[in-house]
Amino acid sequence: MDEFLAKVEAFSNWLWGLPIILLLLVTGIYLTVLLGFFQFRYPIYIIKQTLGSVFKRPKGKGTLTPFQALTSELSCTIGAANIVGVPAAIMFGGPGSIFWMWVIALIGMSIKFSESVLAVRYREKNETGEYVGGPMYYMTKGLNMKWLGIWFSFALMLELVPSMMVQGNSIASTIYETTQISPLYTGIGAAALISIIVFGGIKRIGRVTEFVVPFMAIFYVASALIIVAMNIGEFPSIIKLIVTSAFQPMSAIGGFAGAAIAETIRWGFARGLYSNEAGLGTTPIAHATATTDHPVRQGFWSIIGIVVDTLIICTATAFVVLSSDAWTREAASENPSGLTAVAFGEYFGGIGSAVVAISLVFFVLSTMLVLIYYGVKQAEFLFGLTAGRGMQVVYVACIILGAIGAAEVLWSFLDIALAAILIPNVIAILLLRKQVKELKDEFFTSEKYYLKDLEEEKANVS
C-alpha cells in the first residue's frame, strides 16, 4: 500500500507540475488575446462596476447580490494556502516566485472571467426557485455534452469528500497546537457551526460570508500592513529582490537551498493558480447565483476575486515573510508552512502567532462552508434536491472524520481528483470561447450596458 501511495503521489506531483501549469498558462494567454486584453484595458471601470457599486441595488435577476456571490467565492479561495502556501513557494522557488504569482494572476483573470460569464449565461432555476449554474450546466446546455457535465459533477462531488477531511484536519491541528483542545471536540464544534449555516441554504451562506469574508480579510491584511509600515524603509529593497530574482537564479541563503529560474517560475505559477482556483470550475458555481443584468457584469466580480485573493492577501503574506529573517534561517526549509507564524511572531510576539492562528481558523471555516454548497449543487444536478440534502450530512460528517485523522489514505488522491474536474472544465471553456467573446463584445458595444454606464457617469460628474 505504501508503495502504491508513493506512486500516486509521484504521479500527482508530475501532473500538477508542468502539464497543468502549461495548460492553464496557454489557455489564459489565448483567452486574454481573444478577449482583447480587457482586464488591462478597463481596470478602473471594472473596479467601479464591482467594489464601487457594493452599496447600490444590483440590476437584473438572481438569488444573491453580486457582492454576496463574490464573498461566497472568496470564502473558498481564501484558505490555508494564502498563509502556508506562499512561504512554501518562497522557500522552494525563491522570492522571485512572487513575481510570477502576480503574472499568472493577471493572465488567469481571463479564465476566471470566462467560466463565470458562461455560468451566468447557462444558469437556470432549481425546484426551490434559486438560480444554479456552473460547468455542469454550460457543458450540458452550451456544448450539448451532458455526459461531460455528469463527469464534472460526479468528480467534484467525490473530490470534496477528502477535501472536507483535509480542511477538518487543518482546523483541528491549528487549534490543538495553540490551545491543546482535542481534535475530536474541535471537529464536532466546527461541524455543528457549519451545519447551522449550510442547512439554511445559499441565502444564509451569502449573508454569513458577506460579513465574515471582509472581516477576516481586513483583519489579516491590516495586521500584515502594520508590519510593512514598521519596515517601510525596506519596501523598495523587497520589491527589487522579488523582481530581480524572478529573472536570475537565486543563490542559497541560510535554510534556502537556491533555485533555478524554471523552479522560480513553476512555484510562482503553481501558487497563483492553486490560490485563486482559475479554471477549476468551482467559483462559477457561486457567481451563477448573482443578481445581474448581463453575464459579463458578473464576470467582472470574478476578476476582483483574483485581486483580493492573490494580489492582496497572498502578497501581504509574502511581504511579511520577506521583511523578516524567517526565510533565511538554517531550519526554515524544514517547516516552510510555519514561516508566516514565525514572521508575525518576530514583530508581535505571542500575539503575532495568535493572529495567524485566528486567521487560519477563519479561512478554513469559511472554505468548508462554501465547499459543502458546491458539493450539494453537484448532487442536486445529478440526483435531485433530496440527494443534495443527503450530501450535506455526508460532508459535515467528513469534517469530524478529518479532524481525528480518519481515512488519510483518501487524501493522497485529492490532487488527482482536482485534475479530473479542471481538465474537462478548461476544455469546455475553450470550446465555448466564441460565446464568451460574443457576450463580451455585446456588453462593451451595447447602449444598454457599458456605453450607458459611461453616460450615467458623465451625467453624475456634471
TrEMBL record:
Primary site of residence: membrane
Entry-linked InterPro entries: Na/Ala_symport (IPR001463)
Localization: Cell membrane
Segments crossing the lipid bilayer: 14-38, 74-93, 99-122, 143-161, 181-199, 211-232, 238-262, 300-327, 347-374, 381-404, 410-432
Position of the signal peptide: none
Protein keywords: Cell membrane, Membrane, Symport, Transmembrane, Transmembrane helix, Transport
Lipid bilayer topology: Multi-pass membrane protein
Domain of life: Bacteria
Family listed: Belongs to the alanine or glycine:cation symporter (AGCS) (TC 2.A.25) family.
Name of the protein in question: AGCS family alanine or glycine:cation symporter
